[in-house]
Amino acid sequence: MPNGFSPNNDGQNDKFCIPDNVCVIEFKLKVFDRWGEKVFESTSITNCWDGKYKGKDLNTAVFVYFFKAKLSNGEKYSQKGNISLIK
Description:
The protein is mostly beta strands. The protein has a single domain (4-11, 21-85), classed as Immunoglobulin-like, CATH 2.60.40.1220. It has strands at 4-5, 24-32, 38-42, 52-53, 56-57, 61-71, 76-85. The strands form two sheets. The protein has a five-stranded mixed beta sheet, with no helix packed on it. Strands 4-5 form a two-stranded antiparallel sheet. The protein is globular and about 40 Å long. The two termini are 19 Å apart.
């Protein structure tokens, strides 16, 4: 998982996405702000976080993510970490 992204519409690192080279069958990704409020959730590889919450751009900050997945070989995988939104 990346540790930062910059949603500034320059075509590089504009969204926080699950890497497309991972053999994931199903997953759930949740992102929370520093107060514990969920700002993003996805179960689709094509649904990436664009740094917005309720349609508004968020400021530069560090967020926490939780990722759980089932891989194509049947294994279950989970990861948690920080993602920096950089403007």
